[in-house]
Design goal:
The chain has 15 helices and 14 strands. It is of the alpha/beta class and about 425 residues long. Helix 4 packs across helix 5, helix 5 packs across helix 6 and helix 10 packs antiparallel against helix 11.
Length: about 425
């Protein structure tokens, strides 16, 4: 009986050559699943036809754009998750969603196995297979990059040429890119040297900051309970909102990130990311939290944020851990409603205004005048208690120094009295 394998398909170099390879080595019919997560019409144009021409029996193109923003981007944003201090997790967030839809198609067509085009050195293999293990533990996984004798992108290009498969990658311009609504990533080529500057023509989404407009632009982002809902006063759907901010940020050269990151498999890699709208959203959301949350809650949330980032980066989306973090984050976001005004200028983002009816900042309390809530004279007692550990340590050090100077041992502290004696019994 011919096997049915469902392949996560992008139409790029790797997945393009996997279709004929699976047919040859597994005597299988191949069903492709391509996800529309906002990578753009050009990326998806002709994908189904290309898959069929490569030997696939069918190719389903799934529109996941709103779901991607609503259920993956916004929760990660609300958590404040940033990986390795810079990375806004564009690729990592998308993989669990793509894999989830791939599993749904596999169940619908009665597939015998799942396949992906991730390399054996990368993170995506873990992200896909974590979802497979959770949502389809009964289905075996085929990862050609861990099986075949192709060892480089140059080899992959030669294989595609031999099979007559049209591809965009060339040996001269050999960047590996991943695009979706949230970002565009670049790896490979001269970027493999961490001391080599990105070439100007590598960037696709964002204007060179030096060529950006000479006049700054202000943008106002509105939030309700931590979720972005408007741009410059206009309420927008999740997808439309990120799209609008992408356009605004990109024309001012905002959102370029050059990062040497730590992969899950233990090695470091270098990637360059373009995340214009995401950069604006993180800046605005963080500022609104700073206005509304008290110091201890903000500190607790800052402890959760890197854990959430690790979880997303490692593909552990479908876990109790994430659900627990989301429950915590939901409570912290109940009052994160308001607007933040950002000023964009030649790659820089500056916060120039913020307001919320839930703001803990109140001019009545920070003025130098007296008020009914805060009496300045109260600070003396607070400082004395706040400094008590330091005062006790200083007194003990002074007593010890005086005793040493006199050549006599410092007197030990008196033993505590029995409880009954202390009570006056």
């Amino acid at each position: 009986m011919t096997r049915t394998i469902v392949l996560a398909y992008s139409g790029g170099l790797d997945t393009s050559i996997i279709v004929p390879w699976l047919r040859e080595h597994y005597d299988a019919r191949v069903i492709c699943v391509a996800a529309d997560i906002g990578q753009g019409a050009d990326e998806l144009r002709g994908v189904r036809e290309k898959a069929l021409a490569s030997g696939a029996e069918e190719c389903y193109i799934e529109d996941l754009r709103e779901e991607f923003v609503r259920d993956f981007i916004f929760p990660t944003l609300r958590a404040g998750a940033v990986y390795n201090r810079k990375y806004l997790l564009g690729t990592a967030m998308a993989r669990p969603l793509i894999a989830k839809r791939q599993v749904e198609v596999a169940h619908r067509v009665g597939a015998d196995a799942l396949a992906h085009g991730c390399t054996g050195k990368g993170n995506d293999q873990v992200r896909f297979e974590m979802t497979f293990a959770t949502l389809a533990p009964e289905l075996p996984v085929i990862a050609p990059w861990r099986e075949w004798d192709i060892r480089s992108r140059e080899d992959a290009i030669d294989y595609a040429t031999a099979k007559g498969i049209p591809i965009a990658a060339t040996k001269e311009k050999i960047y590996s890119r991943d695009a979706n609504l949230w970002h565009l990533s670049h790896e490979g080529g001269n970027l493999e040297d961490p001391n080599s500057a990105p070439k100007p023509d590598m960037f696709v989404l964002t204007t060179d900051p030096m060529q950006a407009p000479d006049q700054p632009e202000d943008v106002v982002i509105g939030f309700e309970r931590g979720t972005p809902v408007s741009v410059n006063g206009e309420r927008l759907s999740p997808f439309a909102l990120v799209s609008a901010l992408n356009a605004i940020g990109a024309r001012h050269g905002v959102g370029r990130i050059d990062l040497v990151e730590d992969r899950m498999v233990g090695m470091k890699s270098r990637g360059v990311y373009e995340t214009p709208g995401g950069t604006l959203l993180y800046a605005a959301h963080s500022e609104l939290e700073q206005l509304v949350l008290d110091r201890k809650t903000l500190a607790a949330k800052d402890l959760i944020a890197p854990r959430y980032a690790d979880l997303v980066y490692e593909g552990r989306w479908w876990t109790t851990e994430r659900e627990a973090y989301d429950a915590f984050v939901d409570v912290t976001q109940e009052r994160i409603t308001g607007t933040v005004t950002l000023r964009l200028y030649k790659g820089a983002v500056q916060v120039v205004g913020r307001q919320s009816e839930h703001a803990l900042y109140d001019e009545r309390f920070v003025t130098f005048g007296e008020d009914d809530v805060y009496q300045q004279s109260d600070a003396a007692g607070f400082i004395r208690l706040f400094a008590l550990p330091a005062r006790v340590r200083a007194i003990k050090d002074q007593e010890l120094a005086a005793a040493q100077a006199a050549g006599t041992p410092a007197e030990p502290a008196p033993a505590p009295k029995p409880a009954g004696e202390l009570a006056g019994v």
